[in-house]
Task: inverse folding
C-alpha cells in the first residue's frame, strides 16, 4: 500500500494524544497527578493539540474535504464512520476535564468524572482506528488479530512516555508512571516482533486460481490490463525493497523501542536532571520511531487487487 504521509501523521499524532489523554484522565482521578494549573496546561494542552493536529492532517488525504461530514452518517456499518463519531464525542468530556483542571485546579469530583469518561472515549476512538484496518480482508497483513491491539498498545505506550517526560520536566517525579511507560515499551516491542513474525508466515489469501474459479493447473495473466501505471497500482501495488524494509525495521527497533526503553530505565534508577533528561530523550526518539513504524505498516501491506496485475498479495 502507498504510505500517505497525512495518514501516517494522523495515526501517530492521534495515537499519542489519545494515549496521553487516557493516562491523564485515569491518573488525575486517582490523585497521582498534581492539580496545578501549569501541569494541566502542559499535559491536557499537549493531548488535545496532538489529537487536533492529527485529525486535521487526516483531512489532507481526502479528495473532497468539504464532504468529510458524510462519513459520520455510516456509523452503523463503517469503522471509519465510527472513528469519526468517537473522535468528535471525545472532545466533549476531554474539554470539560481540561477546563475544570485548568480553571479550578482540581482533579476530584466532577472533574475526575469527566476525566474518566474522556479516557474511556479516547480508548474507544483508538480501537475504532485499529478496526478500520483490521476489518479489511483484502489486505492480509492488516486483517489479523495483531492490528487492533497493536494500535491500542502503541497509543498507551506513547502516551505514557510523553506523560513521564512532562512529569520530569515539571519536576514532579512519579515512579509509577515511569514503570508504566517501561512495561508498555517492552510490551510494544514484543508485540511488534510478534506482528512481523506473523506477517512473514502469511500466504496470499486469494490466488488467480481461486479468483477465477479454475482449480487445476496454474493460471497466469497473458498480458497486463494497462500499458501504464494507474491509481490502483500506485496506491495498492506499492512495493518496498526488502533491503530497505530491513534497514527501516532496524530504525524502528532502535528509535521506537530500544532507546526509549533504556532511557526510561535510567529515569527509574536515577533522579533529578538525569531522570529528566532521560525521560525527554525517550519521548524525542519514540515519536520518529513510531512514524517509521507507521510508514512500514502501510508500505509492507499488499492488497489482493494486485493479483489482477500479476502481483502476489503477500
Result:
Amino acid at each position: 500500500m502507498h504510505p500517505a504521509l497525512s495518514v501516517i501523521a494522523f495515526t501517530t499524532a492521534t495515537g499519542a494524544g489519545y494515549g496521553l489523554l487516557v493516562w491523564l484522565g485515569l491518573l488525575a482521578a486517582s490523585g497521582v497527578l498534581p492539580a496545578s494549573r501549569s501541569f494541566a496546561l502542559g499535559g491536557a494542552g499537549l493531548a488535545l493539540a496532538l489529537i487536533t493536529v492529527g485529525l486535521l492532517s487526516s483531512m489532507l488525504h481526502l479528495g473532497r474535504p468539504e464532504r468529510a461530514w458524510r462519513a459520520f452518517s455510516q456509523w452503523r456499518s463503517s469503522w471509519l464512520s465510527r472513528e469519526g463519531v468517537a473522535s468528535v464525542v471525545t472532545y466533549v468530556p476531554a474539554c470539560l476535564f481540561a477546563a475544570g483542571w485548568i480553571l479550578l485546579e482540581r482533579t476530584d469530583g466532577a472533574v475526575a468524572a469527566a476525566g474518566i469518561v474522556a479516557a474511556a472515549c479516547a480508548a474507544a476512538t483508538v480501537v475504532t482506528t485499529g478496526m478500520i484496518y483490521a476489518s479489511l480482508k483484502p489486505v492480509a497483513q492488516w486483517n489479523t488479530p495483531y492490528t487492533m491491539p497493536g494500535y491500542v498498545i502503541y497509543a498507551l505506550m506513547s502516551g505514557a512516555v510523553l506523560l513521564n517526560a512532562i512529569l520530569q520536566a515539571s519536576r514532579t517525579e512519579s515512579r509509577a508512571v515511569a514503570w508504566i511507560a517501561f512495561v508498555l515499551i517492552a510490551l510494544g516491542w514484543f508485540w511488534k516482533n510478534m506482528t512481523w513474525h506473523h506477517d512473514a508466515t502469511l500466504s496470499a489469501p486469494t490466488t488467480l486460481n481461486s479468483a477465477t474459479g479454475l482449480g487445476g493447473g496454474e493460471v497466469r495473466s497473458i498480458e497486463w490490463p494497462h500499458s501504464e501505471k494507474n491509481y490502483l497500482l500506485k496506491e495498492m501495488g506499492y512495493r518496498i525493497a526488502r533491503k530497505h524494509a530491513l534497514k527501516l525495521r532496524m530504525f524502528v527497533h532502535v528509535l521506537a523501542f530500544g532507546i526509549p526503553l533504556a532511557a526510561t530505565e535510567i529515569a527509574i534508577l536515577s533522579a533529578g536532571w538525569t531522570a529528566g533528561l532521560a525521560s525527554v530523550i525517550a519521548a524525542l526518539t519514540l515519536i520518529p520511531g513510531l512514524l517509521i513504524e507507521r510508514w512500514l505498516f502501510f508500505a509492507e501491506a499488499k492488497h489482493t487487487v494486485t493479483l489482477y496485475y500479476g502481483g502476489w498479495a503477500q
About this structure: The chain is about 70% helix and 0% strand. The CA atoms of residues 82 and 283 lie 30 Å apart. The domain at 5-61+69-309 is CATH 1.20.1630.10 (Formate dehydrogenase/DMSO reductase fold).
